[in-house]
Amino acid sequence: MRRSRALIVAAGLSLILGAQVVFTVMLSTSDGARVKSPDGSLLLDRSFVAAGDAWMREGIARIVVSAIPLDGQDAAGVSVEAARDAVRSRGQVRFLLSTWSVRIRLPSDGRWELRADVEGNRGGTARAESRTLDVRAGAPVREFRSWTAEHLVPLALIAAVSIGLALAARRSGRFDRFALVMVLCLWTNEFAYQLYWFFAARGWAAPTALMLQMCGLSILLIPVMLFSEKPLVRQWLFDILYFWGIGGAIQALVAPDLGASGFPTYRYVSFFLSHGLIIACTALMAAAGGVRLTFRSFVRALVVTNLLLLPVYGIDQALRLIPPYDPGNYFVLGYPPPTGSVVDLFAEVFGPSPRYVVGLELMGIAVFLVLYLPWPIARRLASRRASRRAA
After folding, report:
1. 218 — alpha (psi -120 to 50), left (phi > 0) or beta?
2. Total Cβ atoms within 10 A of residue 311
3. Burial class (CB in 10 A: 0-12, 13-18, 19+), 290
4. What are the residues facing 113 on neighbouring strands?
5. 16 domain-assigned
């Protein structure tokens, strides 16, 4: 790895991981509350979903979200008790998370102040920093809706750009230049998103925002893969990141967890840019990086993934000890997502975490196998074409 690129890798890792350490320390208060949506910079309809998180060492009794009219409006304020996200197993609530949401319906247009007040089990209180909202009946709905134009258009763009860049790099022989530009875009977007998610959206939290999910680890390691001058290192990293990056990014893109952050919010743009760049970088490496995927790659990815399960599960459980006192859910080892997923079926069949890991293991093997199969099929087709030409 050339010195300049080694410096880029060191600087990028230091900025992203350093920011995560700083943010974790800044949130280490025994009690806290935040409102993280809706986005106060956008015009909102009178009906919208408010969401945030809250934590208290003594435990939370209830969370009340209030909207107060501003600018001398005659309308009465609105107060609604929010529901915390619940982790369920076999029909029973196992525990409540710090995150909460509630639908707010306002009686009139104008400017409103949105706040959240938390009451503890022993009488303690906490209040989230308020947000000022501009409301008008009939304003565009900002909630993300799957399989509409705001979902399908970025998917088409990601596919077209990934294929186009990979082919252009292969034909031009300028792999290094393409890799440099894409790495700078990937890490600039990630660092900007970390800042936005902590300071603007106020949604950053250690149990959900650390770079420990497959896509996060891919973002950290893809530049090392692209910049390394050692063929063995590049091949090893490609063997793993192909399955993590492509598999994780496709699952995220098929079912985006964006909530109220539809087009054209910053979170929406950053989400598709980040996952699109993971796919584009992996396609670039596959097309012009001098690597190839074999059955050994498939086995290697499975082994490395399984070796990480125990330490990641340990980190998930250790995060209960720090604010906001939620277990982590990296590699989906902590609990089934409250929004619902195939993990719910595994929990029904095998039981709660960590027992449902058996189902995750079977699903992981199936997904990795599907991602691997195009390579031997392509090699066989190429071999047949070569045989026909020789004949």
Report:
1. alpha
2. 10
3. exposed
4. 68, 132
5. yes
- Tracing tokens 């893109």 back to the chain, one arrives at 253
User: Are 304 and 186 members of one domain?
Assistant: yes
Last residue of some domain: 83, 108, 135?
135
* Same domain as 225, residue 111: no
56-60: average pLDDT: 95
Q: Which two tokens stand for residue 63?
A: 């969370």
- Residue 92, helix vs strand vs coil: strand
**Rounded to whole angstroms, how far apart are CA atoms 61 and 118?**
8
Length of the chain: 391
What whole-number distance in Å separates Cα of residue 326 and Cα of residue 98?
A: 7
What confidence score (pLDDT) does residue 133 get? 96
**What is the spatial distance between Cα 363 and Cα 369, in angstroms, rounded to a whole number?**
10
Reference 117, options 78, 93, 152, 82; nearest CA is 82
Say what angle helices 175-195 and 149-172 make with each other, to 10 degrees. 150
Placement of tokens 């009451």 in the chain: 119
Give me the phi and psi of 219, to 5 degrees please: -60, -40
Closest CA to 79 of 117, 108, 32: 117
Measure the CA–CA gap between 127 and 219, rounded to whole angstroms.
35
Cα separation, 336 vs 343, in Å, equals 5
In the numeric block, the tokens 């949401």 are attached to: 101
Give the CA distances from residue 173 to residues 161, 165, 288, 290, in Å, rounded to whole numbers and listed in that order: 18, 12, 8, 11
Q: Note if the pTM is more than 0.85.
A: yes
Q: Report the percent of the chain where pLDDT is more than 90.
A: 83
Residue 320 dihedral angles phi and psi, to the nearest 5°: -60, -20
**Nearest CA to 18 among 186, 191, 146?**
191
* Percent of residues, the chain, with pLDDT higher than 70: 99
The 10s digit of each residue's pLDDT in 155-189 is 999 999 999 999 999 999 999 999 999 999 999 99
Q: What's the token pair of residue 156?
A: 């088409």
Residues 204 and 57 in one domain: no
> Measured in whole angstroms, how far is the alpha carbon of residue 95 from the centre of its chain?
22
